[in-house]
Amino acid sequence: xxxxxxxxxxxxxxxxxGGSWVIWDRLRDRWVALTPxxxxxxxxxxxxxxxxxxxxxxxxNEVSLTQNGIARRCxxxxxxxxxxxxxxxxxxxxxxNVTQKTFDQIVRYNMVLHAHYLxxxxxxxxxxxxxxxxxxxYRFLKDIPCYQDL
Length: 150
Prior knowledge:
alpha+beta, tt1808, chain A, 2 helices, 36% strand
């Protein structure tokens, strides 16, 4: 897998029957296919937990939601201490550029969840946007904040 703009972590990875690779997902508590996007997800989650003090117990990967009668899945959702969605994270493979289309996708998910922070990463570049529902505005942050600063 490609080197990312994130710290290196040790992951459980294994080759399964048929020659595919899988990686252990600590949040889903199971083996998942090791795709380039999954490589980004696992690194980003570890970074949030280990370096940004995000509580793993308040995080979920591949969180289901229904939007206009259509089943969707958010890559990662982080809850606040009351269990309400606080952060939505969308991942792309390192070979995929983060574009307006990526933000449009995460904003659609947020129309259902009403999180206060939206993060997007392809493992090379990372963006964080704070939504202020009182003023109806948003702003991009210079860095990904620590959990206690959200």
